[in-house]
Amino acid sequence: MSSSPVTGRPATVKDAEIAAEQRRVDSAYARLAEMRAEAQEMIKEGYRQALAGTKGSLVDRDAMVHQAALRARALDVADDGLVFGRLDLTTGETRYIGRIGVRTREHESMVIDWRAPAAEPFYRATPEDPRGVVRRRVLHTRGHTVVDLEDDLLDPSAADSLTIVGDGAFLASLARTREGAMRDIVATIQREQDEVIRAPADGTVLVRGAPGTGKTAVALHRVAYLLFRHRRRFGSRGVLVVGPNRRFTAYIERVLPSLGEGSAVLRSLGDLVPGVSATVHDPPDLARLKGSGAMVPILKRAVADHPPGAPDELRVVHAGVVVRLDRRRLDRIRQQLHRRSAGSVNAARRRVAEALLHALWERYVEGGGTEPEPAAPGQGELALWEGILAESGLGALDGQQHAPKARTGREAFEANVREQRAFADFLAAWWPIRTPLDVLRSLGDQARMRRAAGRDLARPDADRLAAAWAEALGGERPVLGYQDIALLDEIDALLGPPPRPSRRPPAEEDPYVVDGINILTGEAVADEDWEPELREVTSSIERLERARRVDDEVTDTRPEYAHIVVDEAQDLSPMQWRMLGRRGRQATWTIVEDPAQSAWEDLDEARAAMEAAIGGPPSRRRGRSKRPPERRPRYEYELTTNYRNTTEIAAVSARVLELALPGARPARAVRGSGVHPVIRLVPEGTVRGAAREAVQTLLTQVEGTIGVIVPLPDGDWSARDHATLAAGLPERVQVLDVLDAKGLEFDAAVICAPEVVAAQSPRGLRVLYVAVSRATQRLTVLTTDPTWERLLS
Questions:
Q1: 210 annotated as ligand-binding
Q2: Tens of pLDDT along 272-306?
Q3: What is the separation, in whole angstroms, between the first and last Cα of the chain?
Q4: Same domain, yes or no, for 648 and 699?
Q5: Is 724 annotated as a binding residue?
Q6: Residue 711 is part of which domain span?
Q7: Is 212 a known ligand-binding residue?
Q8: 215 appears as a binding residue in the annotation
């Protein structure tokens, strides 16, 4: 009897089927190798064309090399799990489904891309609606080797000659071990998930679902689908995927590349503003204040306030007359300038200089300023010294009173003032080029914070924010919370980028250059007349790639995307929605949420901010129409099946959901394991030790990841406790707080002190609901409260 090459045991019917599929997979990989060689040859051909030496040949080279490189990268990604599915149709046709499309040299289909319309029945067909499919087969591969397969029989009446193997591919896939990063579900997408993935591309897709329903995976596969079907539309301006925190983005970062799409930008809410990153979660009371829409007018007032260290008086001398602007006049000028400079404060120095010169001229005229007579040698210095003496209340140097002189011309006055170093120094100090962090740091001053708060924030709340920012931002390395990032983006929108002149005229031609320094930009100016004869030749592709880079200093403006995916959207604050809205003014959206998991207190305010962010462009009707702005189409879906948790774990999370949101309906779990969660009562002060004991036990029970989920840092739990718990544990064990656990899943989870989590904020029960739904196989809960032991058991 022959033996299986995979298992070494006597061959079975299943082994024969695996061997037959292996031959088909081998032929697909052979053709893939040929396609790779063709892509590499195209890259070489592109470089050969550049040898022509013309500018046109360089552009042709760039276009050819760029396209060939993209193709080569997609082919490399497809090497892992190239073929994963097969459809046998009632017509007798057989279709193989894979990560990318593969055709023979004669253009006959060998493998169909999973995103193509011809692959749709692989995901949509059911026994109730087989769509012409008799058998759906899922192939499990390791490298290039088929190691297992599972069949779903959809039309038994047409299956006379087909061999059916296994108990069903989908349920078999659910019990697989987790390896610390999310995997694609391209081989096991279910019908309700596929409807979301292939939803129309012309509007907003809103996906709701309980924990474990596959919302995140569906959203990521939708990105791959959109880029495949609408490459020109979404590929040029890019796709942004936003997650709640860095752990989450690290968890999902492999999914899109595994689907052949590496062009999407992946960011957490703490990494959306270049140059700064969030490292901590704000305590719930501070997060509520920072995330509220009331911060919009507060930040406007903070930007318009007198900058720290700015001078209170401007004094210049012209024709022996000292001209002053006091703090009251200067504040009035500042208010007028800010009304005219919304969104361009940093670029307004030229306007500021003009306003100050105008105010100085008015004061000069009010004071009876006169036009000097032609000065004899040395008289210029005499006038200057007499002005200084007059400022001090002293008489003229020669002891005589001079007759009034004719009024000076305004142009001469302004030219003289601009050349004075005192004016340049004042302008730089009174209207400094500020960064968003400068403004936020300034609010650590209690008096300044109270002025900015006005009537929009109670004084105790304003003082609490000032104290928090003074502590977090006062050191050399500022400690930023996730809500701070949205505030920095808001301030950045108010300040605008600093001025960047397109050319530098020689110093003698520029009235705003004093001693080689441009007083408007602060840049050193050299009198350089030389320009290179030939500038660097770049292609449109290079310029597009350069414009889309957001991690360097190539561009001053924030990028705007064609499509934005927002995961865990129920937790976003109004200020975070404003931050996202600036990046998608013309975008379509995919929004993934579960209102039952929301940690944000004012859901109505957050919902209004979301609507403002994702709303369509204003109506084009002229006149003062009272019609609301036109909205893009919206497609709403609800995922109702829990694919993550066993029925035993789902029962515990359902109990917490009932406490958090009475009457809410949990998703339906589809698999049982017979392993019941461990709900353990431990003495006060022993939770940390008990958690390490539980981890040691679980390490012997599961092969994959283990999550130890603890309360947010506060008086009872500190960052040091997290480090102590994690010390010496294997890499597959993660210790993280309840907010960092958002969106993640583990083979086993240990929940520490649920009573503390529930009491930490008004939404604590909902946060706990998220925590207890992270495990796929085993769950342990450690509590010091007998009430919680009874509630969860």
A1: yes
A2: 999 999 999 998 899 999 999 999 999 999 999 99
A3: 53
A4: yes
A5: no
A6: 644-792
A7: yes
A8: yes
